Amino acid sequence: MDINGVSAIVTGGASGIGAAAARQLAAKGAKVVVADLNAEKGEALAQEIGGAFVSVDVTDTEQIQAAVEKALELGPLWVLVNSAGIGWAQRTIGKDGEFGSAHDIDAFKKVIAINLIGTFDAIRLAATAMSRHEPDADGQRGAIVNMASVAAFDGQIGQASYSASKGGVVGMTLPIARDLSAVGIRVNTIAPGLIDTPIYGEGEPAEQFKAHLGQSVLFPKRLGVPDELASMVVEAVTNSYVNAETIRVDGGIRMPPK
Fold it and tell me: Which is one Pfam family of this protein (predicted)?
């Protein structure tokens, strides 16, 4: 699928995997809408790649729709990358046997709202816009790539909410791909492993911690880098025969219980 001259939306596009995906899509000729809450980084990236920034909280339908409308101003919308997400770690129950120390239910709901419901909301709105334009010679009208996690399969202790949200993204990939096949829109999901992003901090202690984490990866024994995920995003977008798939990009890691 040729994306030169079309528009694309990347949620969570201001940093990490999202930013790397935005850069690589732009390098292929797409006009990218960086949809993120971080205006400083988002605007800087949009200027760098010749795209546009839209402030988007993916729990707000109107803000997602504004990103879709901005993308349509730049060109026909052919690409959506759902990279916005948050993490949370907490055990299901506390050590004291009290109800009050059990997992924070509002935190659980927030993770689901952002990682799962926000992803679906972006899909339904972007796909609606994609369905309006003329298909290419292969009958395609667009491609959607979601970001899940290996936690969807190998969730660790304390990752109940995060694993549930990412497992939901994996679980809805096939039915949405089947649904949108009627209008020529492909849907795939990528499940990253341990990726070197700002979440781990900076400085020597952070580097030592990341090196230790990397030893649990099958091969190569290091954390992945955002560009390695972004290249898979581009492949899933441009390879017209990749559809309804969840692809692990994780160096072969299988996460231990903790």
Answer: adh_short
- Ranges of residues in the chain with a pLDDT under 50 are none
Long-range contacts from 211-216, C-beta under 8 angstroms, 24+ separation = 216/253, 216/255, 216/256
Neighbours of 220 (CB within 10 A): 10
Rounded to the nearest angstrom, the gap between the alpha carbon of residue 167 and the centroid of all alpha carbons in its chain is 13
Q: Which of 162, 166, 233, 248 is catalytic?
A: 162
Residue 162 designated active-site? yes
* For helices 118-130 and 61-74, angle between their N-to-C axes, nearest 10 degrees: 30
Q: Quick: pLDDT tens for 135-156.
A: 999 999 999 999 999 999 999 9
Integer-rounded Cα radius of gyration of the chain: 18
Task: Sketch the domain layout of the chain as residue ranges.
Answer: 7-249
Nearest by Cα to 160 from 59, 87, 253: 87
Quote the tokens at residue 3.
């994306």
With CA atoms as reference, report the closest residue to 162 among 150, 180, 144.
Answer: 150
